[in-house]
Amino acid sequence: MKYKIEKNTVQETLIIPLYARKVCSELYPNLYRDETTVRLIDEINYDFSEAEKKSRSLMQRFGSLEVAMRQNDLAFEVRDYLKSHPNAAVVNLGCGLDCTGRTCDNGSCKIYNLDFPDVITVRNELLPAGEREKNIPCDLNDTAWFSEIDASGGAVFFASGVFYYFLTEQVKTLVRAMADAFPGGVLVFDAANRTAVKMIAKTWLKSAQIKDVGAYFAVSDAPQEIGAWDSRLRVSSRGYMLGYTDLKDPSVSGFFRFLARVGDGMMKMQIVKIRFGGKQ
Ligand SMILES: C[S@@+](CC[C@H](N)C(=O)[O-])C[C@H]1O[C@@H](n2cnc3c(N)ncnc32)[C@H](O)[C@@H]1O
């Protein structure tokens, strides 16, 4: 039996990073490996033929590297938080079929994977929750899910490729509500400036033939713009491609390193980290 992802919904966007992680595992195994993704691609009822055709083009290869690097960056931040909070809740917001929570499992944290109910139904079949793990069907914009998270040992939240599909007001409301509910917690996510977000809609959604889904939330100077939302937010950011690694692996060309500089610099592709309360 194959599991179906509905066409032309924001849920369908999970296919883009899923496929990119497979491509990156094949092209840049020194930098990123994700065996689970490779297996999942075969188990989903989705037509990957277009994606496959385009997957070796220059821009798609670079895009795959971007997706894999942001996953590494977010995993770095989760592990970093777990060093001081070994029993924390590790919460994957808009998880799709990503397993970063498990990748970061330290044996004592609690892992939560949150997404819309139809995605969680597929996830429950393909990636049933393990020990200390919970898959939670929800709309992230309805804070009812807060009560399901045991943050008694701290909480680190991450959202990978998710907030682009939110309006700025929605991200702001959610972040402020999280600051109320999870003092001492941390939220990390990827973001980019308006030019880059327009490109996501034009290039990525279009080439994946996903209709009726828009990309909206953009940020340029995260500490300043997001910091102004609420005095309890301690905001920092690092380049998404080069903020955590120098990409000096021989498998990455000089041209791709140049594109990475352009992405981090001109497009403001970044990993934003928000601490709820406490010192900067
Ligand atoms: C581009 S995919 C990223 C999936 C995953 N984070 C990854 O990196 O593979 C965006 C995901 O966010 C989920 N999503 C978007 N808006 C959401 C909302 N309001 N509530 C719950 N999930 C949402 C979608 O269903 C989709 O699975």
TrEMBL record:
InterPro entries: Ppm1/Ppm2/Tcmp, SAM-dependent_MTases_sf. It is an enzyme of class 2 (transferase). Keywords: Methyltransferase, Transferase. SUPFAM superfamilies: S-adenosyl-L-methionine-dependent methyltransferases. Its EC number is 2.1.1.-. It comes from the Bacteria. Pfam families: LCM (PF04072). The keyword Electron transport does not apply. One of its GO terms (biological process) is methylation. GO terms for molecular function: methyltransferase activity. PANTHER family: S-ADENOSYL-L-METHIONINE-DEPENDENT METHYLTRANSFERASE YKTD-RELATED, S-ADENOSYL-L-METHIONINE-DEPENDENT METHYLTRANSFERASES SUPERFAMILY PROTEIN. This is Class I SAM-dependent methyltransferase.
